[in-house]
């Protein structure tokens, strides 16, 4: 009798714990399923926020590795994958302005406070002239940024000219960035807080924008929102060359998905594979 009771008790305990284990396993699997669906939905939502991109355009994201050798491998591999060619570094005003002059336009940024002149100039004006007539002028107001960097980008398209300017702030972080196309402010046209990183892709203007903390880009006068909390860009010195980095039909830039996240690399631009081209 003692053995029978013991055996019966053991059997009940086994069944009880057996049910408990499977019950907990069920809830664990259910939770994993919910998380998977949520992540998938979030991923799909982010994908949707990229669309529609211009025809034949791609967008790819990369975590930025700490190892510089791995970084170089990612850059080289991606450049080859999309046949991006070499990055463009013609941002320097000296080379771009000369090209502008050949087309009949002249950009002149000068100091209007002669008493502070030279590198210490704190109040500058930029004039755009055509055939010896000023067609556009902007007062950069007082700024700690050297006049050299107040017009970091200049492009001449087939039918119009365009420049990128910095105005309205003494310190670099306070400056307003604005794209001017044929004398018209893109900030005013689209209601942007900032428009920046002017580029020419297929002889059409491309630039990024910021509006109320949201970011995106404009290409061929069409606005495309992007799902990033920040797109990083430099206003000064050597960093201007690579943030964002520009290619013939691509841009490569640093962005954050959420404010608390680390920066990621984003590659964006037109890609027509050799199969599609044939």
Describe the fold and architecture.
The chain has 278 residues and is of the alpha+beta class. The protein has one domain (51-277). The protein is 29% helix and 35% strand. The strands form 4 sheets. Strands 1, 13, 14, 15 and 16 form a 5-stranded antiparallel beta sheet that branches. A 4-stranded antiparallel beta sheet has the order 5-6-7-8. The protein has a 4-stranded antiparallel beta sheet with strand order 9-10-11-12, with no helix packed on it. Strand 5 and strand 6 form a beta hairpin. The longest helix is centred in the N-terminal third of the chain and has 49 residues, at 2-50.
Number of helical segments with 4 or more residues:
5
Number of strands: 16
What is the overall silhouette? globular
What is the H/E string? HEHHEEEEEEEHEEEEEEEEH
Tell me the span between the first and last alpha carbons: 88 Å
Low-confidence stretches: 1-10, 28-45, 90-95
Task: Give the class from helix and strand content and strand pairing.
Answer: alpha+beta
Largest sheet data = 5 strands, antiparallel
Percentage of residues in helical conformation: 25-40%
pLDDT averaged over residues: 76
User: What is the percentage of strand-forming residues?
Assistant: 25-35%
For the CA atoms, what is the radius of gyration?
28 Å
Number of domains: 1
């Amino acid at each position: 009798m003692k053995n029978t009771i013991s055996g019966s008790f053991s059997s009940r305990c086994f069944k009880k714990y057996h049910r408990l284990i499977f019950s907990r396993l069920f809830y664990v699997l259910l939770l994993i399923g919910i998380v998977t669906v949520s992540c998938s939905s979030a991923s799909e939502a982010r994908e949707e926020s990229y669309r529609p991109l211009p025809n034949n355009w791609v967008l790819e994201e990369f975590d930025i590795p700490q190892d510089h050798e791995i970084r170089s491998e990612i850059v080289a591999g991606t450049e080859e994958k999309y046949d991006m060619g070499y990055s463009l570094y013609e941002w320097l005003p000296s080379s771009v302005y000369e090209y502008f002059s050949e087309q009949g336009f002249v950009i002149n940024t000068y100091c209007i406070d002669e008493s502070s002149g030279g590198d210490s100039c704190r109040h500058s004006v930029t004039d755009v002239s055509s055939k010896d007539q000023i067609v556009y002028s902007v007062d950069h107001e007082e700024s700690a940024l050297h006049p050299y960097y107040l017009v970091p980008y200049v492009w001449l398209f087939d039918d119009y000219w365009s420049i990128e300017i910095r105005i309205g702030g003494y310190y670099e972080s306070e400056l307003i960035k604005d794209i001017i196309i044929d004398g018209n402010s893109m900030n005013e046209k689209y209601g942007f807080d900032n428009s920046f990183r002017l580029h020419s892709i297929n002889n059409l203007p491309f630039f990024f924008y910021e509006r109320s903390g949201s970011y995106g880009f404009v290409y061929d006068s069409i606005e495309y929102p992007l799902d990033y909390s920040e797109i990083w860009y430099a206003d000064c010195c050597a960093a201007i060359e690579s943030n964002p980095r520009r290619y013939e039909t691509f841009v490569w830039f640093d962005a954050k998905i959420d404010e608390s996240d680390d920066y990621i690399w984003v590659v964006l631009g037109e890609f027509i594979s050799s199969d599609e081209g044939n």
